[in-house]
Write a structure and sequence with these properties.
Blueprint: E1 29-30, E2 33-38, E3 43-48, H1 58-74, H2 80-83, E4 89-94, E5 98-101, H3 106-114, H4 118-136, E6 144-149, E7 151-154, H5 156-162, E8 166-170, E9 174-176, H6 190-198, H7 200-209, E10 212-214, H8 215-220, E11 226-228, H9 233-244, H10 248-261, H11 266-280, H12 285-305, E12 312-313
Parallel strand pairs: 3-4, 4-6, 5-7, 6-8, 7-9, 8-11
Antiparallel strand pairs: 1-12, 2-3, 9-10
Length: about 325
């Protein structure tokens, strides 16, 4: 469970009364996210550390949704004055070496498919698209969102990155939608966001290819906005923010206009999740076994990375 006081966005925020049930900054913590707020640049950093899987576990999704709700509250017009400095920039990355996020929880999918549990598949999928849509709408605030991809972004990991205003990726990062390999399709936003960015024909080609795309390839077609050298992704984000800080007002308006001109609604995403859930029940046991082999390979890769599955204290204060 996530705990974070929206009023802690500013060091000048008023002290909580004894009747206020929200936790103090010192008490705030996340199981699967490491977060910080840098007042000098008004940048909120969120790093995924899901453990023991490098995918969108339900614990990670819950933390993301809780964080989004608190940021929407903190950045709402009614509370912006209380919060002090607004979050002008929001950056999400990963602390797992070589991995941004490997997507959906494949072992969970396999279990629910074999159990014919349509309700559970829908519930997981809807949780995913709610989290993705929450990032895409930038907390209903004048905030510019940035995905920092320093490793593989597969399946739902790719879909997550696509929902951000800006994608910064290191050269060695790989993007892919492997679902076609086990007779499924990426049902948590890929078609919606790709078709808006590169058109439906190219989106379908990418979805049905099942191949990995290098960051440089996606930069060439405009899906990756900033290409960084390996190990320089965070520095590239900081440099991009510094260079664009004076244009923040215009940029956030441009991205809001983009969302208005080519809206991806939560209703659209939810309807596609329902299609995905029904389709998942139609795959064969051979396809399920392929899914489980991929899940096992992902788990093995994570264990080699030395990533520890531990809760992380929130360091949501001044840099």
């Amino acid at each position: 469970m996530t705990h974070l006081s929206p009023s802690s966005l500013s060091p000048e925020a008023p002290a909580r009364s004894s009747a206020d049930p929200r936790p103090s900054l010192r008490e705030a913590w996340f199981e699967t996210l490491e977060t910080s707020f840098e007042h000098d640049s008004s940048t909120f950093w969120a790093w995924m550390r899901p453990g023991p899987k490098a995918c969108f576990t339900r614990a990670l999704l819950s933390d993301i949704l809780d964080q989004q709700a608190l940021l929407r509250d903190a950045l709402s017009p009614a509370r912006r004055g209380e919060a002090g400095a607004a979050v002008r920039w929001y950056v999400m990355g990963s602390r797992i070496p070589g991995i941004f996020n490997l997507g959906g929880d494949l072992s969970h999918f396999a279990e629910k498919i074999r159990a014919r549990d349509l309700a559970a598949l829908r519930a997981y999928g809807r949780m995913c698209v709610e989290a993705i849509h929450g990032n895409a709408e930038a907390f209903q605030a004048p905030t510019v969102t940035v995905a920092l991809v320093q490793g593989d972004a597969l399946g739902g990991g790719f879909e997550c990155a696509l929902a951000f205003d800006v994608i910064v990726a290191e050269r060695s990062a790989k993007f892919g939608l492997p679902e076609i390999l086990f007779n499924l399709f990426p049902g948590m936003g890929a078609y919606s966001y790709l078709s808006r960015r590169i058109g439906p024909v190219q989106a379908e080609r990418m979805i049905t290819s099942g191949r990995l795309y290098a960051a440089e390839e996606l930069h060439a077609i405009g899906l990756v906005d900033v290409l960084a050298d390996d190990g320089e992704g965070e520095a590239a984000v900081r440099d991009w923010i510094e260079r664009n800080d004076r244009r923040h007002n215009a940029l956030q308006a441009i991205f809001r206009a983009r969302r208005r001109a080519n809206p991806v609604t939560l209703a659209e995403l939810t309807d596609i999740v329902d299609v995905w859930s029904e389709t998942a029940l139609g795959i064969s046991d051979l396809d399920v076994r392929k899914m489980l082999r991929l899940a096992a390979a992902q788990d093995k890769r994570l264990s080699r990375s030395g990533h520890a599955a531990l809760p992380f204290v929130c360091c949501f204060g001044s840099a």
